[in-house]
Amino acid sequence: MKAEILTILKDTDGYVSGQELCERFGVSRTAVWKAMNQLKKEGYEIESVQNKGYHLVKTPDILSKNELVSIRKTKWVGTEICYFDVTDSTNTQAKSLGEGDAPNGTLVVAGKQESGRGRRGRSFESPAGTGIFMTLLLRPEIEPQNASMLTLVSALAVAKGIEHMVDLPVQIKWPNDIVINGKKVCGILTEMSAQMDYVNYIVIGIGINVGNEEFPEEIKDVATSIYLESGKHVNRAMLIEKIWEEFEDYYELYEKTQDLSSLVKEYDSYLVNRGQKVRVLDSKEPYEGKAMGITDRGELIVDTWEARRLVAAGEVSVRGVYGYV
């Protein structure tokens, strides 16, 4: 009931009468009063005036299931929301749900991760109260070989979502790091469970540095936060909602063709690597060239002095980004 009350308060400019809420939910005035007090304890600033009712004055940066449900406008993402104040990893939780009967679009969100992971098993810094740590569970009817492109789809959604919240130039470092002013603000980790010709499920994990005011010495030259770059305190729940609204639109385009043919132009417009000299850390033989954009399948096009090469996997270092010169 608390999530529904929050939705009503947020959608109402003036006051909502206690009697109206009683009738709406079929509960007593005491039950409504208790719900309001619980919301106040969670940090919501709610004004109550006799003979007028209740009015939501201010919503602070609260991350909870009730908050996420109360602002949800997505069509299918977040049909089920699992929220943890603290968890090991949202990807781990989402994969566990994927092994069960959790529906497509289930969203896992945590206030803090204790075992967050990035690409190649690297640990991901996940302090409480400052970031967004979330994973989406998908059960798509796609060919397994087309799944990796969803990482790029997600990167577009995150970039666009951040742009909704702050006036900053957001870019993407291929394939999936979100960059602001040459520093990483977000990482994305996509994992899949599949058979030869069938996808059981896919989880897309997203970690965003939102309100961090500082970083450890070893990463401060390559990592940043939305707050550090904009000076603005961004509401994390609202940013989550904006990202998944954008994701649904991009995913619909991707799903029609199971490739990025309709998204290449927009992705390239965000690509910080484009036109830049890059070093491809190939496991056999590293090489350098100029990044030209991506293919319909999300491969990075790299022009070397001898040939045009396509990079489908691996790690790309970019000169001028992350401190590289």
Describe this structure in words.
The chain has 325 residues and is an alpha+beta fold. It has 3 domains: 2-58, Winged helix-like DNA-binding domain superfamily/Winged helix DNA-binding domain (Arc Repressor Mutant, subunit A); 65-269, BirA Bifunctional Protein, domain 2 (2-Layer Sandwich), CATH 3.30.930.10; 273-318, SH3 type barrels (Roll). It is built from 9 helices and 14 strands. It has helices at 2-11, 18-25, 29-41, 65-71, 90-99, 149-165, 226-230, 236-257, 264-270; strands at 45-49, 53-58, 81-84, 107-110, 131-138, 170-173, 177-180, 183-194, 199-209, 277-280, 287-294, 300-303, 308-311, 316-318. The strands form 3 sheets. Strands 3-4-5-9-8-7-6 form a 7-stranded mixed sheet, with helices on both faces. Strands 13-12-11-10-14 form a 5-stranded antiparallel sheet. A hairpin with a 3-residue loop joins strand 6 (170-173) and strand 7. The radius of gyration is 22 Å and the shape is elongated. The model has no long low-confidence stretch (mean pLDDT 91).
Features:
325 residues; alpha+beta; Arc Repressor Mutant, subunit A; BirA Bifunctional Protein, domain 2; SH3 type barrels; 3 domains; seven-stranded mixed sheet; five-stranded antiparallel sheet; 9 helices; elongated
